[in-house]
Amino acid sequence: MGVPGPGIFVLPAVKQAARAFATQFLKPGDRASIATTAGLGVLDFTDDAKRFAEASDRLNFSGHLPHSVAEYQADAITTLDSLRMAAKRLSEAPGTRVLVFVSAGFVAQFETYLNVESQVKNVIDAAVHGSVAIHVIHAKGLPTGRSGWRLNQPLQEVAEGTGGHFFHNSNDLVGSMELAAHPEVSYSLALTPTKRDGKFHTLKIRFTSKRADSLEFRPGYISRKDDDAKATPAAHSAMDEAAFSKQNSQDVPAAVALQAVQLKEGVARVSVFVTVDVNPLEFATSHGRHMQQLVLLSALVDRNGGFVTGVESTMDLALTDSTLTSFQKDGLRTVAKLDAAPGVYQVRTVVREGMKGSLGASTAMVELRPR
User: Fold this and answer.
1) Which residue has the higher pLDDT, 235 or 293?
2) Pairing of strands 97-103, 132-138
3) What's the CATH number where 322 sits?
4) What CA dihedral angle connects 245, 246, 249 and 255, to 10 degrees?
5) Which of 22, 35, 318, 323 could make an SS bond with 289 (beta carbons 3.0 to 4.6 A apart)?
């Protein structure tokens, strides 16, 4: 959920719509998360509609309103970079991947056109690579004056370039969210590419007969190279190895606390609270933001070393100076919830940072008691 530029003025309506969407339209089996361009108010994937609604209520505007064309340009670039990272993170999730981007649109003094062509291309590339459709909702609703089409063109290009829809000129934010998350009719089409060359190929999909309906689909695909299909992601392998290793590491310092509760007959839950010390981490700087990625894995292992259950999450950080200072003081906190039958387990926690690929790992014992 991104709110660049004039987003502070539409945020109350967006929060109200997000709560209504969560309580009315999230279906069993749906897993939803919240990401923001400021890196605040994020929510990891959850199937708990109440939790999503409560997180929506806590969203707040962070940052300052731009006052010059240069600041508007930097703000637009930061927003699109955050959208690209959100698409990349979503690409790692199983199932049908839909990213709903709620934005108040881009602005600039005297409607100067923003030069964000390369950032738009990067967003589309990340989404297409990860089979992510991005639906964009223009949160300002029906226009009351000049439409500023050229300044909202990046939003439309992102939606159309990923096979999504650009919802605009409507005040029905809840309906737009529902249609974006659950299209009335959708199909998954498969094809066997004739060339595995790693290049972009255009797609054209047409009805066999003339009809009034319209089709929305991404304009093309990137063919994987044969070498890419055989490659094993090194970072993912390192996480897997660390999860089943008995070695502890503080290369990425993290404190872990456990809380076990009985859920119902035969099922207990351990909450894994992780506080990452970000002070030793390196951050890349882009347009006034501090960029880093953290991958966190919490796994429950039985007495025989067998994997029982686990949760892996990715946090793409784009922090302001004040947010980074806060995290350096208090740590970056997250929680994972693992459900299992009563018994004695090891909780293995692994944290990987994205700049160097350094890992932190720890083991703790927990007993899940029956009633």
Assistant:
1) 293
2) parallel
3) 2.60.40.150
4) 110
5) 318
